UniProtKB/TrEMBL annotation:
<dbReference type="InterPro" id="IPR000719">
    <property type="entry name" value="Prot_kinase_dom"/>
</dbReference>
<dbReference type="InterPro" id="IPR011009">
    <property type="entry name" value="Kinase-like_dom_sf"/>
</dbReference>
<keyword id="KW-0067">ATP-binding</keyword>
<dbReference type="Pfam" id="PF14326">
    <property type="entry name" value="DUF4384"/>
</dbReference>
<dbReference type="GO" id="GO:0005524">
    <property type="term" value="F:ATP binding"/>
</dbReference>
<feature type="domain" description="Protein kinase">
    <location>
        <begin position="67"/>
        <end position="307"/>
    </location>
</feature>
<dbReference type="InterPro" id="IPR025493">
    <property type="entry name" value="DUF4384"/>
</dbReference>
<keyword id="KW-0808">Transferase</keyword>
<keyword id="KW-0547">Nucleotide-binding</keyword>
<dbReference type="Pfam" id="PF00069">
    <property type="entry name" value="Pkinase"/>
</dbReference>
<dbReference type="GO" id="GO:0004674">
    <property type="term" value="F:protein serine/threonine kinase activity"/>
</dbReference>
<keyword id="KW-0723">Serine/threonine-protein kinase</keyword>
<keyword id="KW-0418">Kinase</keyword>
<protein>
    <submittedName>
        <fullName>Serine/threonine protein kinase</fullName>
    </submittedName>
</protein>
Length: 525
């Protein structure tokens, strides 16, 4: 490159630093590796400027009570759904407003009562209803806004799921339906478009159109659901029941594995995937049995059958070769400038392998029964808890707890536990695990305002957490047991390492991580 070219090169660097547009020619990029590296740096700088750009002012279409209503995001025969903002809570919400036609046939008091019943459902896999009211003559309810995509959109973008990943999704949706059914409600329109996947990986069963009291579902929505997801008896005029919700869920699982909408004329588990284990095919076939009596009696029973599939031979089968990878790994020309060298760390992050699909549940145990609880659930002294995790690939998992006294405790891994990292692929494992062949639980043993839990998962050991474990001199040699296999945390690091500090250290780590954080207030008895 001539001195004049060097001067032009310097001007390009100045334009990048000043966030000004640059002109790139194909010849320059092909002939000069320095130019190619500089173009890569310019693209990275533009991406980070876009992230840091100020958020444009929120467009308000109209106001409904205290909510500032923005764009309409969905509509059906009975309701419209808008993205709205609640200035009192400082958060976006999804607002479902009844259409005038639906309001004419559905009593407002019945709608509000249904909303109150929906609001009592406390499950992390069911969209949380925050309130219901009537303003300006329109009845509506608002719920949490899920920032993510539907399962239908994800399959259209990335292709079908691997068998074990589909089973994990099914387990989460079974838990969601179990919570809905226990409240005496039906969903009525389970399909991939009504299942949302939050950016952090949480699956949420959304109630954007159907759902509610069984009589209401069958009286007002008989003709509004998609035929592909309707059970044969419903297509012939029968009322929807819990068995219908499970039939539709079987269709969702078939869709996740095939990428195609099920044929309502052929309700079995017919799809061309040789790598799907027979056990999983059998679960789908039973869920989609033409006879409602032949289906699973409860969503919990179907969840147990799906969990057994993760232990069956061939459960960790990979997705077919026709499934396209979800992330490109583009190479980068060798950087010759200091600025390009500084960008190498960012490029390495872009090349990092994606985290495996993981499914985590927090359980509260009462004898042989286990209840899935969500963030914000109140707990009491002597409550016994555990975490259930399943991952499609081996994963390193770490569990921490702190209370309002500032004491940080590591609950997993611990030296005296039989359960060790990494977690095996395709299996559902409960943490803190086992010791001496006994399943252990976490007992709420000290009075406090709240308990906080942090669960960290990674595809590889997390150096900062491994170092913490190795250098902590307070590690107990034994796990202390109380009652029938209850874990009293066996490690007490100094109070100078609060949970927020640990999270900040993890945020600074150059490693893809998945974090779950729970805050459980103590119940005043």
């Amino acid at each position: 490159m001539t001195p004049r070219d060097d001067a032009a090169f310097d001007r390009l660097i100045e334009r990048i630093l000043d966030a000004e547009p640059c002109e790139w020619t194909a010849a320059d990029l092909a002939d000069d590796p320095r130019m190619a590296a500089l173009k890569t740096l310019s693209d990275i700088a533009a991406a980070f400027r876009a992230i840091d750009a100020p958020v444009p002012a929120r467009a308000i279409a109209f106001r409904w009570g205290p909510l500032e209503v923005g764009e309409r995001v969905a509509e059906g025969g009975s309701a419209e759904v808008f993205r709205a903002h609640d200035p009192r809570l400082g958060r976006d919400v999804a607002l479902k407003l009844l259409t005038p036609a639906a309001a004419a046939t559905l009593r407002t008091d019945a709608f509000l009562e249904e909303a109150r019943r929906l609001a009592r459902i406390r499950d992390c896999h069911v969209v949380g209803v925050l309130g219901a009211a009537v303003h300006d003559g329109r009845a509506g309810l608002w719920c949490e806004w899920i920032d993510g995509c539907t399962l239908a959109e994800r399959i259209a973008r990335d292709g079908p799921l691997a068998a074990d990943e589909a089973a994990l999704v099914g387990i989460g949706l079974c838990r969601a339906l179990a919570a809905v059914h226990q409240a005496g409600l039906l969903h009525g329109d389970v399909k991939p478009h009504n299942v949302l996947r939050e950016r952090g990986g949480r699956l949420v069963l959304a109630d954007l159109g159907a759902g509610g009291d069984p009589a209401t579902v069958n009286a007002s929505l008989r003709t509004q659901a998609s035929p592909a997801w309707l059970a044969p008896e419903v297509l012939h005029g029968a009322a929807r029941t819990q068995a219908h919700d499970l039939y539709a869920l079987g269709g969702v699982l078939q869709f996740l594995l095939s990428g195609e909408t099920p044929d309502p004329v052929r309700p079995g588990a017919a799809f061309d995937r040789s790598d799907v284990p027979p056990a999983l095919r059998a679960v789908i076939a039973r869920a989609r049995a033409a006879d409602p009596a032949a289906r699973y009696a409860t969503a919990g029973g179907m969840a147990d059958a799906l969990a057994a599939c993760l232990h069956a031979p061939g459960a960790a089968a990979a997705a077919p070769a026709s499934v396209a990878p979800t992330r490109r790994r583009a190479g980068m020309a060798a950087a010759v400038l200091a600025l390009a060298i500084a960008a190498a760390g960012m490029v390495a992050l872009l090349r990092a392998p994606p985290l495996p699909e993981m499914h985590l549940e927090l359980l509260r145990h009462d004898g042989d029964r286990a209840q899935v609880i969500a963030d914000g659930t109140a707990v009491a002294l002597r409550d016994r808890l555990s975490f259930a995790l399943a991952s499609q690939r081996p994963a390193w998992v770490y569990v921490f707890n702190t209370d309002d006294h500032g004491t940080l405790q590591r609950l997993f891994p611990l030296p005296a536990l039989d359960t060790r990292n990494p977690m095996p692929a395709g299996r559902r494992v409960e943490l803190p695990g086992r010791s001496g062949g006994r399943s252990l639980r976490i007992e709420v043993s000290s009075p406090a305002q709240a308990e906080e839990f942090l669960v960290v998962a990674s595809a590889a050991p997390v150096d900062v957490l491994e170092t913490l474990a190795a250098t902590d001199g307070a590690t107990d040699a034994e796990v202390r047991l109380r009652g029938s296999g209850v874990l009293v945390p066996g490690i007490a690091p100094p109070a100078s390492a609060p949970l927020d500090t640990l999270v900040a250290q993890l945020d600074a780590a150059d490693q893809p991580l998945r974090l779950w954080r729970y805050r459980l207030p103590h119940r005043a008895d």
